[in-house]
């Protein structure tokens, strides 16, 4: 009798933690494990702003999935574009664009999230995101290119528009992105004697009334003061009304000459979730505390893709889409999957939030570990210590620490690496959100496959 087939979709924090625990705790031959991911690495997302600013190299935050000594998982290079829970088949588009069916006995949906967008004229055509490694590398090239082009231009209007930068989203990703990239341009402008540093202006805008409200009023104000001391203009209660190639219009009526719009205004569950036709909570799969999908045999979901009940908070709360929860959910889900295989009882996911860290670059940071509010160097030590310890391999830890030390001693580099193409890249170009099938297309695809066989 063939061993049960376990299919894990997604190699983010949740998916990788789940696979690693399965590899450690399942006996050889007890089950076959396969992982669907376009890339054979786990991306450490919280450090992407430091990749965009050049403090870290892209390779240092891309942790190889094949370095584990227990590695025996079959990695399928591609993305899941639909799931037929009745036929127990996952439809996968490989990186070659070949579409294949992958049967399973148990499926773990850890497909993560994509950048959340709104119906704003010009947004999809002119904004860049900060959700993938390619986007971070592209944004760095783009920002440095604006300095190069402004320095070479004889047109004052063009120069002014190239030196205005807008980041939308006052959460952790947006705040860290604005802070780290502002630090990059401030240090870089010393090497552009024809540019007036006063012309370089960073704008951080958010429709919310407070910056990073999860940190609390005191630390939120501290972060706001740090940004404003660096001459980052923070506008709250404001969003983008319209985006164009050379200007951005805000909802308060301002029109800003600008060629750089970075969009980090939240995330939404992967479009894969909609292909299941199951109940959702704000777009995330509604699952039990054991992370099972009700009414679907052998289907589990976690991380950003699932609304996992937050039993530590109660009152119907669901766990926020953070790496901290995703990693711990991955371990509990793996244990529950093994328990299912062995006909043992499953356990609920319960975890109390350990706090938050925000690295603003240099010596600036705000952190709230275990409810203790910190800012400045102590907060920076906690933030970097947390990120460093969360990296999965010693190789990744060594690379990141070496990059930090080198940057502290030698300063920033201002070299474009070639990601900047002649055709501007947009939000669509990196996340492939139009690649998913409808429930009807999935049924048609899986049924035709069954007929052929």
From TrEMBL:
Its EC number is 1.6.5.-. It comes from the Bacteria. Keywords: FAD, Flavoprotein, NAD, Oxidoreductase. Residues 5-330 form the FAD/NAD(P)-binding domain. It holds the Pfam family Pyr_redox_2. One of its GO terms (molecular function) is oxidoreductase activity. Belongs to the NADH dehydrogenase family. This is NAD(P)/FAD-dependent oxidoreductase. It comes from Streptomyces stephensoniae.
């Amino acid at each position: 009798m063939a061993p049960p087939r376990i299919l894990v979709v997604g190699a983010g924090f949740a998916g990788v933690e789940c696979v690693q625990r399965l590899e450690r705790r399942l006996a050889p031959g007890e089950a076959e494990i396969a992982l669907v991911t376009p890339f054979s690495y786990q991306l450490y997302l919280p450090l992407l702003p430091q990749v965009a600013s050049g403090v870290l190299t892209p390779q240092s935050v891309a942790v190889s999935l094949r370095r584990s000594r227990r590695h025996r998982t079959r990695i399928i290079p591609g993305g899941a574009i639909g799931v037929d829970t009745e036929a127990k088949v996952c439809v996968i588009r490989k990186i070659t664009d070949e579409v294949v069916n992958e049967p399973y006995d148990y499926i773990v949906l850890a497909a993560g999230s994509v950048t959340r967008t709104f119906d704003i004229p010009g947004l999809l055509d002119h904004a860049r995101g900060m959700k993938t490694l390619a986007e971070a590398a592209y944004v760095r090239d783009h920002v440095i290119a604006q300095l190069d082009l402004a320095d070479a231009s004889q047109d004052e209007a063009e120069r002014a528009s190239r030196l205005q930068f807008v980041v939308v989203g006052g959460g952790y990703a947006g705040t860290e992105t604005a802070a780290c990239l502002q630090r990059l341009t401030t240090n870089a402008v010393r090497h552009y004697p024809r540019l007036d540093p006063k012309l370089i202006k960073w704008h951080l805008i958010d429709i919310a009334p407070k910056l990073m409200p999860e940190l609390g009023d005191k630390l939120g104000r501290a972060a706001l003061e740090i940004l404003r001391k660096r001459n980052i203009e923070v506008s709250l209660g404001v969003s983008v009304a319209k985006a164009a190639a050379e200007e951005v219009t805000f909802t308060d009526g301002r029109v800003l000459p600008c060629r750089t719009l970075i969009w980090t205004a939240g995330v939404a569950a992967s479009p894969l979730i909609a292909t299941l036709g199951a109940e959702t909570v704000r777009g995330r799969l509604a699952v039990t505390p054991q992370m099972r999908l009700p009414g679907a045999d052998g289907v589990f979901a976690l991380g950003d893709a699932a609304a996992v009940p937050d039993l530590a908070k109660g009152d119907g709360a669901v766990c926020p889409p953070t790496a901290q929860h995703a990693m711990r959910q991955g371990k509990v889900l793996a244990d529950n999957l093994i328990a299912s295989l062995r006909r043992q009882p499953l356990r609920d996911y319960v975890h109390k939030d350990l706090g938050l860290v925000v690295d603003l670059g240099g010596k600036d940071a705000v952190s709230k570990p275990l409810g203790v509010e910190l800012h400045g160097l102590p907060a920076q030590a906690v933030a970097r210590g947390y990120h460093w310890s969360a990296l999965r391999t010693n190789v990744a830890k060594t690379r990141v620490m070496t990059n930090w030390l080198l940057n502290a001693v030698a300063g920033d580099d201002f070299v474009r690496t070639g990601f900047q193409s002649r055709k501007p890249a947009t939000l669509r170009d990196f996340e492939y959100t139009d690649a998913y099938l409808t429930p009807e297309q999935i049924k048609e695809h899986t049924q035709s496959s069954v007929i052929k066989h």
